[in-house]
Specification:
By secondary structure, the protein is of the alpha+beta class. It folds into two domains: 188 residues, Fructose-1,6-Bisphosphatase, subunit A, domain 1 (Fructose-1,6-Bisphosphatase, Chain A, domain 1), CATH 3.30.540.10; 128 residues, D-Maltodextrin-Binding Protein, domain 2. The protein contains eight helices and 16 strands. The longest helix is centred in the first third of the chain and has 22 residues. The radius of gyration is 19 Å and the shape is globular. Bound molecules: 6-O-phosphono-alpha-D-fructofuranose (P6P).
Length: 334
């Protein structure tokens, strides 16, 4: 098959499918270029003195890795001059980033987790960049937090780049999910899978088992049934995976199915959950639904959750549709 670059794919989406316009095409290309730079920085590992902590905490009160700060800077610098954005927001910044006055502004908002799973970076385990694109509401400045407080169903694009054995960008603009692998010799992302679909059933679950004593009853029931295997009510054996890097776990699920769970529990209840709605749960839920999967908090569709703050947290249960529906039904008591 003749290789199709990300640029060609986006031009065809714009020209033939009319799924995107020039500004959104530019936005995605700029983010992809920034992810290439992040991939190179990460790939140097200990050689470039970029491992370890930056000595600062982010708004979440989490110690920032040097690569968290670097990745955030790369994404800001790559995007602020293009004239396609009204504003940017990041896990690593307290509030939205104001586009410098010397640059034109556009109609889109970009919100991202520049380096998700960065606690894994020092032990050489896959990490990733997650991004979400919204339209800036009319009459609201893109550097106001309220501009970003839109339900995930309003996203016009979402994607992630997983920095693993290969650097792979996964993208949806609302017409399916497509994967692009970085050809390091040429320096461009190449289409390697079109229209990704998640199997509706699975035998693989992903959850941090060390939180078991904090779980709510529906989660206890679901996981116990999986662990009971073929002798139990599910009548089949299950496998377990937990990378502790959402991008890596979601990529596995997109590739071979599975269910990912970071449910509400007594430890995270006060914060509303562990994972952040705007730049982790929403983009991943948009991607998973576009690939035929499902994504709920256990009690409602994630893409319907009305955000109340930029760094709001939610419970996340996503992946193979039949399994997510089962867990959600258990939460409803059925
Ligand atoms: P735990 C990484 O910090 C992250 O935000 C997600 O990428 C990942 O799924 C989760 O937290 C891991 O959490 O409690 O297992 O360390």
């Amino acid at each position: 098959m003749k290789s199709i670059s990300l640029t060609r794919f986006l031009i065809e989406e714009q020209r033939h499918q009319h799924h995107i316009g020039a500004d959104l095409r530019l936005l995605i290309e700029v983010v992809a270029r920034a992810c290439k730079s992040i991939s190179i920085a990460i790939g140097k590992g200990a050689l470039d003195g970029v491992l370890g902590n930056a000595g600062t905490d982010n708004v979440q009160g989490e110690a920032q890795k040097k690569l968290d700060v670097l990745s955030n800077e790369i994404l800001l610098e790559a995007n602020e001059w293009g004239g396609h954005l009204a504003g940017l927001a990041s896990e690593e910044m307290d509030g939205p980033h104001t586009i410098p006055t010397e640059y034109p502004r556009g109609g889109y908002l970009l919100v991202f987790d520049p380096l998700d799973g960065s606690s894994n970076i020092d032990v050489n385990i896959s990490v990733g960049t997650i991004f979400s694109v919204l339209r800036c509401p009319n009459g609201i400045n893109g550097d106001e937090e309220r501009a970003f407080l839109q339900p995930g169903a309003k996203q016009v694009a979402a994607g992630y780049t997983v920095y693993g054995p290969s650097t792979t960008l996964v993208l949806t603009v609302g017409s399916g999910v497509h994967m692009f692998t970085l050809d390091r010799e040429v320096g461009s992302f190449v289409l390697t899978q079109r229209d990704v679909k998640i199997p509706a059933d699975t035998k693989e679950f992903a959850i941090n088992m060390s939180n078991q004593r904090f779980w709510e009853a529906p989660v206890h029931r679901y996981i116990s049934e999986c662990v009971a295997g073929k002798e139990g009510p599910r009548g089949k054996d299950f496998n377990m995976r937990w990378v502790a890097s959402m991008v890596a776990d979601v990529h596995r699920i997109l590739t071979r199915g599975g269910i990912f769970m970071y449910p509400l529990d007594s430890k995270t209840k006060d914060k509303g959950g562990k994972l952040r709605l705007l730049y982790e749960a929403n983009p991943m839920s948009f991607i998973v639904e576009q690939a035929g999967g499902a994504a709920t908090t256990g009690r409602q569709r994630i893409l319907d959750v009305p955000p109340t703050s930029l760094h709001q947290r939610v419970p996340v249960i996503l992946g193979s549709k039949n399994e997510v529906e089962r867990v959600t039904a258990y939460h409803a008591g059925t």
